[in-house]
Amino acid sequence: LEAKEEFSHKTLAMDVMRPRRSDPALTVLTQDSMTVEDVEAIVNETTYSGYPVVVSRESQRLVGFVLRRDLIISIESARKKQDGIVSSSVIYFTDHSPPLPPSSPSTLKLRSILDLSPFTVTDQTPMEIVVDIFRKLGLRQCLVTHNGKLLGIITKKDVLKHIAQMANQDPDSILFN
Ligand code: ADP
User: Fold this and answer.
1) Is 65 in the pocket of ligand 1 (CB under 6 A)?
2) pLDDT in tens, 81-132
């Protein structure tokens, strides 16, 4: 078995993460440049449980992770209760409000719902290790990075599907495919 293992192709985090090569890009939020209406559109057009927050689309540097349900509740409540919050209000997850022209509407701070240290692995991490981390830490999702840039996401369901696929394949095809 040990000798055979040399032929086996280890599944890596990049093989299981979403998006797949042909899929549309990961749906992310930026830390201080999207408006209430931008974020509402994303929440309405997608059903993901959460969204990574990045410094900017160009940098793809990970800042944190925000749950869809927390976004919905916070925006709804701010629209009702917080003075000056309108569709064009800028949402920020940073410590301080971004510099904006004086005529801009009130900004909405959502730092309190941001998970600032979501679990991450690099794209080259073997799935055996990813599965182990999910089991031991009871993760719901894990982000995948390469050279510090956000690449993708693996959810608990993605991991379970991966485990089921491995179990269904006969041993020879796992070793030689
Ligand atoms: P689940 O995997 O439990 O259905 P989600 O609804 O969050 O959870 O994710 C559905 C699929 O979309 C999963 O395969 C996941 O990897 C992927 N996914 C999750 N969040 C995002 C996102 N923000 N952008 C792109 N794909 C995502």
Assistant:
1) no
2) 999 999 999 999 999 999 999 999 999 999 999 999 999 999 999 999 999 9
d(CA 172, CA 115): 42
- For residues 85 and 77, is the Cβ–Cβ distance under 8 A? no
Cα–Cα distance list, 144 to 12, 14, 30, 61, 102 (Å): 11, 8, 17, 12, 38
Interface pTM (ipTM) of the complex?
A: 0.98
What order do you get walking across the sheet with 50-54 strand by strand?
Answer: 29-30, 50-54, 62-67, 114-115
**Beta carbons of 150 and 61 less than 8 angstroms apart:** yes
pLDDT band with cut points at 50, 70 and 90 for residue 177: very low
Cβ–ligand 1 distance for 162 under 6 Å, the answer no
Give the ligand 1 atom nearest the CA of 49.
Answer: 7
Task: Judge if the beta carbon of residue 153 lies within 6 A of ligand 1.
Answer: yes
Query: Which residue's C-alpha comes closest to atom 17 of ligand 1?
Result: 18
